[in-house]
Structure formats: structure tokens, C-alpha cells
Design a protein that fits this description.
Layout: H1 8-14, H2 25-31, H3 35-59, H4 68-90, H5 92-98, H6 109-117, H7 124-154, E1 156-159, E2 171-174, H8 190-216
Antiparallel strand pairs: 1-2
């Protein structure tokens, strides 16, 4: 039997909130039309996860069991509000692109779940690392889903699409030669989002199962 080694990428794949636990699917399916939107939503969730885990770990011993959920939601909502104000001021185009799904981070079950199951029971350092791991896993999933959908749907990768009100910089990169199959607008539709997510979940599961078999050989 081979000795099992720690792999941060392996941890992200094995405990991925979207691909393994199917959490945060609403924002994942709605936002991942472009690489840029996927990246920014993932980083937004990462910011809120790490910040809320930090505060929850600090205050959990003073919060009664009966009011833990509303108290933690207030903490999460505070970080989401800070994030909204920052994005509205410095990246208004992305603030508009993410739309209603930005404030809906408050009710993202990944964030409240980590606060209740881990941060409220562990010390600050461990809670921050837990938020980092969960946030990076979700960001990785969104980027992968958004990239595949944009490439298949628009045959391009959009990055920094008017992200700065000062420069208005735009970069769009064509990926494949145009043909009768690509671009296919199906992948930009809700049905295409489900199809793409299902295929990626199947691929990730196959990789995880293959990794488990390798450990036994």
C-alpha cells in the first residue's frame, strides 16, 4: 500500500462544495457565463468565508445556542455589505454583472454551514484555513464551470472586461477556430449550465475514484 500524502489540490477536489457536496448551485449556475464573473464570484465568497469564519470563531463562546444561526447570519451579512460597497465603488461593471447574486451570498449554505459546523467549534487559525480551503474549492469550481461554458458558448475567454472605470480595459481571447459546433449558445442557457455541471461532476468523481484505486494498489 502506498503512503497517502497530503495534497491541497486533492483536498479541494475531495471536499469541493460544488462538485462533491452540490452546495451553492444557484449562484454557480446563474453567474458562470464568463470566466471573469466566475472568478469574481468565487473570490467574493472566499472573502466572506474567511472573514465570517474569523469572527464566528472569536464570538462563538459568547453566543447562546438558541440564537447562533441569526447571529452568524448577521456576521455574514456584514461582510457581504462591505464587499458590495467596495465593488460598487471600485468595480461597478462587475457589481452590476453579479447583480442579485452578490447579496444572496448571505444565504449561501456553504458559508453558514462552515460557520456552524467548524468555525464555531475551532480556534481562529484553523477556522481561517477552513474558510480558505472551502473558498478556494468553490472558486476553482466556478472558474472551471465558467471557463468551459464561455469557451463552448462564445469561443472566447473574457478577462478584465471594463473592470476599471478609469481604463476601460477589455481583453477577449478567442480559443478555438470557429466551426459548425463551436460556439454553441446552448451552453450559455440554464439547460447548458446543468449539462456542463453534470459532466464536470462526473469527471471529478471519476478522478476521485481513480485516486482512491491508486491508493489501494
Amino acid at each position: 500500500m502506498k503512503k497517502k500524502t497530503f495534497s491541497f489540490l486533492g483536498e479541494i477536489l475531495n471536499e469541493n462544495p460544488l462538485f462533491v457536496s452540490s452546495l451553492g448551485m444557484c449562484s454557480a449556475l446563474a453567474i458562470t457565463l464568463t470566466f471573469e464573473n466566475s472568478l469574481m464570484m468565487g473570490l467574493s465568497v472566499l472573502f466572506v468565508l474567511m472573514g465570517s469564519n474569523l469572527i464566528v470563531s472569536l464570538i462563538s463562546k459568547w453566543v447562546a445556542e438558541e440564537i447562533r444561526i441569526p447571529a452568524f447570519i448577521v456576521v455574514i451579512a456584514t461582510f457581504v455589505t462591505i464587499l458590495e460597497l467596495l465593488m460598487k465603488t471600485y468595480v461597478p461593471s462587475l457589481f452590476q454583472a453579479l447583480g442579485i447574486y452578490l447579496p444572496l451570498i448571505v444565504v449561501n449554505c456553504i458559508i453558514l454551514g462552515r460557520a456552524l459546523s467548524f468555525a464555531s467549534k475551532n480556534k481562529i487559525k484553523a477556522s481561517i484555513l477552513d474558510g480558505l480551503k472551502a473558498g478556494l474549492g468553490f472558486t476553482f469550481a466556478l472558474i472551471l464551470l465558467g471557463t468551459v461554458r464561455e469557451v463552448l458558448g462564445n469561443n472566447q475567454i473574457t478577462f478584465m472586461d471594463k473592470i476599471s472605470p478609469l481604463t476601460g480595459y477589455i481583453a477577449k481571447y478567442q480559443i478555438l477556430p470557429v466551426n459548425d459546433i463551436i460556439p454553441n449558445k446552448l451552453f450559455l442557457s440554464p439547460a447548458g449550465a446543468f449539462i456542463t455541471l453534470g459532466l464536470l461532476i462526473g469527471i471529478i468523481k471519476a478522478i476521485r475514484n481513480r485516486g482512491g484505486k491508486d491508493e489501494l494498489n
